[in-house]
Please model this.
Amino acid sequence: MPYSCQHGGTCINSTCVCSRGYKGSSCENESLEILYLRSSKAVFREGNEVLFESEITDNSNFTVQWSRDGVIISGILSRYSITSSAKANGTFLHQLRISSVYERDEGNWSIMASNGVTVVNKGIIIRVLPKLVLLMIPQYDLSIETKENFTLQCVVVNPGSLINLTSGSLIWVKDGKPLLTGSIFTISTTQTSTILNKASAEISDSGNYFCLHSTYPDPLNVSIYVNIIGPESVEILLFRISDSISREGKSVWLETEIYEIIDLTVQWFHNGNLITNSSLRYEIKSYTTENDTLRNVLNVPNVLQQDDGDWNITASNGKTTESMSVYLRVLPRLVLQMMPPNNISVESKKSINLSCVVTNPESLFNLSGGGLFWQKDGKKISPDSGFNITTTDTSTTLMKSSAEVDDSGTYLCAHSSYPEPIYVSIYINITEPKSVEILSFKSSSSVLREGKSLRFESEIAFDPALIVQWFHNGKLINNSSKYTITSSITSNGTSVHVLQIFNVLLQDEGEWNITASNGKTSETKSIRIQVLEKLKLQMTPQYDFSIQRGEGIVLGCVVINPGSLQNLIGGSLIWQKDGQKILSGFHINTTNTSTQLRKSSSEIDDSGSYSCSHSAYPDPINVSINVNVTEPEPIEILSLKINKPLLIEGEAAWFESEIMNKSGLIVQWSHNGNLITDALSRFTLTSSTTANKTSLYVLNISSVVLQDEGEWNITATNGLSTASRGIKVQVFPRISLSLTPKDDLSIQTGEVIQLQCEALYTDTPAYSTGIKLNWKKDGKDISSDPSFSVSEAGTTTTLYKSSAELTDSGRYSCSHSAYSNPEDVSVYINVTLSDKDKPCPCQHGGTCINSTCVCPVGYQGRYCEDEYLEILSYKSSNSVIREEKSVWFQAEIVGPVGFSVQWSRNGDLISSTASRYVMTSSKTANGKTLHVLTITNVLQRDEGYWTVEALTSSKTEARNLTVKVLPRLLLQLAPQYDFSIKTGESINLRCVVINPKSLTGLSDGNLVWKKDGVYILSDFGFNISTTNVSSTLEKELAYLGDAGRFSCSHSTYPDPVSVSIAISVTKPEQIRCADDKIEKIMWKSTIAGTTKKESCPENQKGTATRYCNFQGFWESPDLINCTDVSLVNANEELDSIIADGTTKNVDEAVNNTLVKMKNLTSQRSELSAGDISSSLDILEKIVNVTNMTSANVEKEAFFAVVDNVLSTNNSKSWTAVSDKTEKDASSLLKNMDRMSEVVLKKENITTSKFKGKNFEVSVDKTKVDEKGIVFPEKTEKTPNDTTTDTEEYSTFLELPKQTNKIEKPITYVAVIYKTISDILPTDSGSRTEENSNEVKEGKEKKKKEFVNSEILSLTTQTDLGILSPPLNLAFQHKHENESADLQAVCVSWDFITNKWSEEGCKVNSTNNKRTVCQCNHLTNFAILMRPYTPVRI
Model:
């Protein structure tokens, strides 16, 4: 009996022969088996292709996964290609191909197969050897002289790359030809290194030297260009002078260094004249240096004026000659001339006038500061000693207007900064003069009034040399139309002097002096005069006026200047009418300086001229006014009208009346005898003036009531006469409406709608023409709606519908057309579904139509209960992009409300905080969403697969795109830096494409050369040789016209990428700087007046520069762009994190960087300017990354780096950073503040303290409304204690308990900076500033602001706002303030202006050692010493 074989098995001899993929007696079980797993090789080299193959037997329902060392491999990655296919025998062949293997691919590769029941796997181990890396020493092209020794070394950096090579070694190739041992070169080779040496170089040894491995399968090599040059001609390496500007009598030496060659002759010349040792004034020496060069020295011990001019050195070997020159300027010896030149005698009280002149100003050239000064008897004369000193660059004057006897002495003039004691002097003898005597001085009066005359008289002892002058309040008085000055001789021999003033004014008050002088002595006497003002009266009102009989008269009179009444005995202000004193009929009220005239009711005979005067004033002074009293005119109401004769209840109404204008007019409205006012809310009263000068009065009634019927009157009065007019008004009741039913109602679909509206009071006479009733639903007219019927009967209308619908729900209103603003009545009808019409239960906003749910976008299912998520399309702007270009990815997605989208690259999530990425999303017209990721600056690492994922709480959809990134073209020019050659020398330039992959996709084109922007063609005299990836430019003999900037670029590369170098071609006699080694850099000879560039020292990256000045001497190297390699790598790693926005391994990267920086900055006694600059950049980026990713930073390491950077050993480097970059210590202060903010944002903050040499930090927690903050805790003195005992002063801050309540304890960061104040910017950066011009003019040095304390900082987790009570800060001065010209100022650092600010701070107490401040805010604080500026009164 046959078996029942399953799954297609065949029964043969009662045994089931199972089909492939099944087993068991009846073929009932699935069979899963990996028959084999093999690789194309067991050992690979980096860059090789790898193929794994595995054959598997099973039915078709199984899955396969590849993995390396347990990590699953995805076919999405561009390096991997995973395929599977069915074989003819029924098995399946699975392949994994790796296009380019890396060293990290070494390990166990396995394949796993699973059919849901059985899991099987197989593994295989492969080994990956690294790619060969060769290092050439030296790394840069080399230039040496003939006969010198040169050595090249080539090293295998990674010996593991040579595994499995059975033979071969490192070999040397020069210009394409192999170099063999035993040739003109000495070659020493081991398995991993080779050394090439030539003991004596020849010109023919110039060329490209390559190093490669003879049996390495890939063509890898390193190369260097060696240029051999020979001293074929005479070359002066160095020519310098000790001082290019010297003074007569000083010594000068000139020095030169020359390559010592055969038959060398050296000669010295001055202005073309040969100099020899035979001259007694010159010493010439020569000797050979340790570098085998010839050193020549010419010494001039005593320089004279005739030594001024060109000094030349000429070297010759009989074939070539080279000459160099320097210019020596000889300044003459200082010559001073005093005027007067001889000793003099001067009477006391006479002036002293001395002058001192530099007769040869050129002798002062090159003096720094100083100037001419005066001495008397060996002591310097200062400007405040009674002498007037005026000084210029070349002259000075000494003056004293009135000499004293003790001014006798020897006066000397000299120059303060002239190096020799050269001066001129004179002796002055001061003698006593004959004195002048004023016998008497008197005036006609000491007190007088304006306009009077005044006479002064003085008698003086006679003196033929007498000079008399008059003064008023210090001002000289001369003869004029106002002043008359006379003098005469009396009989007794005295002189009488008179000053007459005929019209005295107020300004003549004050001190009057007479001064008499004989040129030797003088005397002055004075009299004080008081001038009283002329009486000034003012009348109120000031102008004539008219009034009506019965109106009051009020006049006022005031003395404007009460001082004019001084010295008056008795008297007072009086009134007159028409020249007669007013005694009765008026009420008069008078004080010392004012009077008032009043009458309550005027009469016609009160008209007249009223005047006011003072009865005792000696001059007739008065003021007057004319008053005209007239009969009153009657009041006239011109009109009274109303807007409508018949009014309806509720309407608005207005009355209008026009009245002739009268002064004092009072107008009142009344109804049926009752007064109407604005106090009643329905009434508004207004008035205005018309164009014809009448008054218009209006009464507005906002809403008429039935009681307003009756008589309305207007009454006008001015107290003298009255007028009144009236008008009758009739008011009718308003129409009202009645609606049935009155209350809102609810009905179901299919029921009847019936509404009835009736109009009441329609028999009003005002509406005899009838009214129209209207129906509306929700404010819209439905009278013409065909689904409703409207019927009318008299004043009643009915709205009817037989079968209500859901859409009939709403507010129904009835209104009439009688008024412009008709009233209405309304009722709300709610129509609900009957049971038979109820809809289906749709979810997520679905709409039920014909009992079927129509779902919104993103949902599906019978009731829209299921979410629907799908990426409809996913595309990119380009699949192959060049570095630094932009690319976008666009995904169209349909999904439920609230789904999210994520982007990733090669499995790493992309953050929107990255600066290079822009993520946007928008809705399309069909309800779908469009998501776009834009990369503004594509980098090489962006190559790979890019994934977009759409996610909900239950579903995830993903799509992938692969992008290939071509690197940006990198060109390298050899040599790399600008250089200088002489005419006749050769030009050899080589341009290489470092990364040939960057040329992918370019169909044609090649490297091209330009000179000064113009293409170089083959007929330009240059030889150009070009391959796909390199080009050489050669010229055998250079001439002056070949100087310029040479650039290399690719003719078809889409972006303007080029490298360039400047070549200077000079004549052989031009000045050059000689080869020099300093800062571990060999500086090659270059032309004077140019800047040389060289690579930075070992273990540093960047470019160093050094200037060769016009005299041919090197200046100090500039290493600001040289940075330690470890700092450069750390900087680039942080840039990568910031650019990509990835949060992966941020903690590790940041803290590794900090550890490296801590080790580097602590191991060196002094950091370079480049390391300081780079450290500031890295610390700022660490703060940015930490803030962006919330990474956990090792605070101790961060603080240690800051402490090391702030070391005082780095002062010179800080100065270089400030001078050559836009950075200074304030950027470190700012990043510490930002790091404090980052620390305070953390939820779980641990208290910590850091105490370094240069600053201290404390992170702690407190409840500031219960306990204050003191930092640092190192003193028991209170901040307000400024005693001057011997106890050491300290700097600290104290935040008292705050009055504002705080809910919970807050964390704070407190910092004290001990050294940063010395490197922070101030106004000048120094405590004094000396201006050469000011010094020459005799001015003192100008003191400038400077920081005189350590810096304190406090930051809290919660903003405390304005502090109450304020923050106390005690500062110990770094320099004791002994100067009265400096004052201590409490300041805080303003990061916006980058300056110190006084805002919010004040000085509480201060002395020369210590200052205590109070501030109402938190930030960084210090003491600023500021020059004291006295207040000028």
Remarks:
- Confidence is low (pLDDT under 50) at residues 1282-1288, 1323-1342.
- The CA atoms of residues 415 and 763 lie 122 Å apart.
- The helical segments are 1125-1140, 1146-1163, 1169-1189, 1195-1205, 1211-1220, 1225-1241, 1332-1336.
